[in-house]
Amino acid sequence: MLVLCALAGLASAHDVSRSDSKIEIQGREVRVTFTLNPAELLNTPLVDQSAPVPDIVLRHYFVTSPAPPVATTVGKYSILPGSLARMEILYVFPQDVTSLQVRSTLYEIMPAGHQHLISVRLNGILHEEILDSRKQQTTFTGVKSTNLQTMWTFVRLGVEHIFTGYDHLAFLLGLLVATATLGSLIKIITSFTIAHSITLALATFNVVILPSRLTESLIALSIGYVAAENLFNFRAMKRYYITFLFGLVHGFGFSNVLREMDLPRASLALSLFSFNAGVEIGQITFVMLIFPFVQDLTSSGWKRLKPAVSIGIACLAVYWFVQRAFLS
């Protein structure tokens, strides 16, 4: 019930706030393609809402090498589908850039938990990093990132994604409150894992892509369907079959994170594997924390657990569906 209350309190923020920058270095010039959702800029004393978005960004995004640039120019600024904005920033340094330091305080003016995803190509080597309130600064050199560093970055991203993907957690909770045995739980989680891993890979490699609005709306419907099955005690098919079908949809939702980063093919396979591993770690951790409580409450004879939780989840599903299908 505590988990459900937490989900309800965060219903409007089903995914973590993100922005990203793709950086290309050529001699003294550093070109940054910066993407964010301008609607997420918070109305705080730190943000002058009348200022142009590029000006706001440059007050919270800093590039040095190691000295500051001698010139900073904002080029093309455009609005992309999905309410995203993209800008091009050119930094010119007094010397050829052999190392680059990036600092972000965007978390101060964006929703709580904001992450800034960076990809940098330096001396032909690609680097990726995630900056947030805990890690505000990073330095890139010509030394290639190890596979272990890449794995850790994307495993962490996957874990954070599942624990901030409140819709995915609500879906899992709806399954848990109606699962009676460990054997059934293993079948359900395994089918969900296989399904979302398939579509996560297909979408990340651009083999099959669904529109974001359609994917997010279908995820909300999947949550509502599971809640309805729980409330009315019916099964159109075995639970792990329906979980597999809905897992395919959730995989497309997971893929949005990696697709937004536009990772090169050279590192895509490792990044995909690591991100999916992080998702599984987060998912298994959630299940291990919640399932014993569900079992204890059920065995104690409290029969109101399943309907109470399912009603709450159904309400969240309706809210998310209306928000995603008609208001986003």
Name some characteristics of this structure.
Immunoglobulin-like; six-stranded mixed sheet; 328 residues; 9 helices; three-stranded antiparallel sheet; 9 strands; elongated; 19% strand; alpha+beta
In spatial order, strands of the major sheet run: 4-5-2-1-7-8
Q: On the 0-100 scale, what is the average pLDDT?
A: 88
Order of helices and strands: HEEHEEEEEEEHHHHHHH
In which range does the helix fraction lie? 40-55%
Q: What is the count of helical runs?
A: 9
| Strand content bin | 15-25%
Instruction: State the major sheet.
Output: 6 strands, mixed
Structural class: alpha+beta
Distance between the termini: 29 Å
The parts where pLDDT drops under 50 for at least 5 residues are 8-14
Question: How many structural domains?
Answer: 2
Question: Which overall shape is indicated by the principal axes computed on the Cα atoms?
Answer: elongated
Radius of gyration: 22 Å
Beta strand count: 9
